[in-house]
Write a structure and sequence with these properties.
globular, single chain, 7 helices, 246 residues, 14% strand, seven-stranded parallel beta sheet
C-alpha cells in the first residue's frame, strides 16, 4: 500500500532511539523527508545516518527555547512541514509522596508542555500543507494508570484531552491529530521500569512483547493519506494489555 508520504516533510522528536526512532524510520522508508531531534548528539547522528534523515539537531523538548529553535531549524531544512510526531522521554517514576514540587514541574514541561509548544509552533506550517498530520506518542497511562508512575498518570491524560479538543479546532484546516498509547513495547524505558531486565509478557493475550517498529508502522499509517478520516483518537498498541472497554 502506498501511504502517500513521498516527499512529505516530517519532524520527529526524541528520535535517536526507541519509539521515536522507529517512527522516523517508518516515515523515511515511505519516502518522507524526515528531520529528527533528541538530547544525545552521538546517538542522534547515528540514527540520522541509518534512517537517511534529511536533517537533525539536538534539542531538549522540555525547554521552550530549544523547541522554538528546533522548529525553526526543521522548517528551514525541509522548506515547510506536513507531519509532526511529538515524542519525549517518560517522566521520572515514583508515587505521589515521592515526587516533590520540582518533579511535578519537570514532568509538566517534559510530558505535557513539550507537545503543546511543538504543536503551537508547527500549526502555521501545517495549515499550509495539503496533508497536515500530528501524532503524539503517549502511553497506556493515558487510559489506564500504572502504579508508581504518578507523573505519567497525571500528564498523559491531559495530552489526550488537549488533542481531542484541538481536533475540532484544526479539522477544518485539513489537519488530523491522534495519540498513540503504547504498552509492553520493548524499549530502554520499559526495561528500566522492569528493573533493568527483560520485562515479562505473561500477562498479555499475545504472550510476547511488542517491537518499536510495530509502533513506527502504526505512526506512519496515521500520517498517511489513507488516515485522513481518523482524528481526535487515542489508539492503543499494547498486545491487549488494556483490560477496559473503550
Amino acid at each position: 500500500m502506498d501511504l502517500g508520504l513521498q516527499d512529505r516533510r516530517a519532524l520527529v522528536t526524541a528520535a535517536s532511539k526507541g519509539l521515536g526512532r522507529a517512527s522516523a524510520a517508518a516515515l523515511a522508508a515511505e519516502g518522507a523527508r524526515v528531520y529528527i531531534s533528541s538530547r544525545n548528539e552521538e546517538s542522534l547522528r547515528a540514527a540520522a545516518q541509518e534512517i537517511g534523515a534529511a536533517g537533525w539537531s539536538t534539542a531538549d523538548v522540555a525547554s521552550a527555547e530549544q523547541v522554538a529553535g528546533l522548529l525553526e531549524a526543521s522548517v528551514e531544512a525541509l522548506g515547510g512541514l506536513d507531519v509532526l510526531v511529538c515524542n519525549a522521554g517518560g517522566p521520572p517514576p515514583g508515587g505521589f509522596d515521592a515526587i516533590e514540587e520540582d518533579g511535578w514541574r519537570t514532568g509538566f514541561d517534559l510530558t505535557l508542555m513539550s507537545a503543546v509548544r511543538l504543536i503551537r509552533g508547527a500549526l502555521p506550517h501545517l495549515r499550509r500543507s495539503e496533508q497536515g498530520r500530528i501524532v503524539i506518542i503517549t502511553s497506556i497511562t493515558a487510559r489506564q494508570p500504572i502504579d508508581n508512575l504518578v507523573l505519567s498518570n497525571a500528564y498523559r491524560p491531559a495530552i489526550t484531552g488537549m488533542a481531542k479538543t484541538l481536533s475540532r479546532e484544526i479539522g477544518p484546516d485539513g489537519i488530523t491529530i491522534n495519540c498513540i498509547a503504547p504498552d509492553a513495547v520493548t524499549t530502554d524505558r520499559v526495561r528500566q521500569l522492569a528493573g533493568g531486565g527483560e520485562p515479562s509478557a505473561d500477562h498479555l493475550p499475545v504472550k510476547r512483547m511488542g517491537r518499536p517498529d510495530e509502533v513506527g508502522a502504526f505512526c506512519a499509517y496515521l500520517c498517511s493519506a489513507q488516515a485522513g478520516f481518523i482524528t481526535g483518537q487515542t489508539l492503543s498498541i499494547d498486545g491487549g494489555s488494556l483490560r477496559g472497554i473503550h
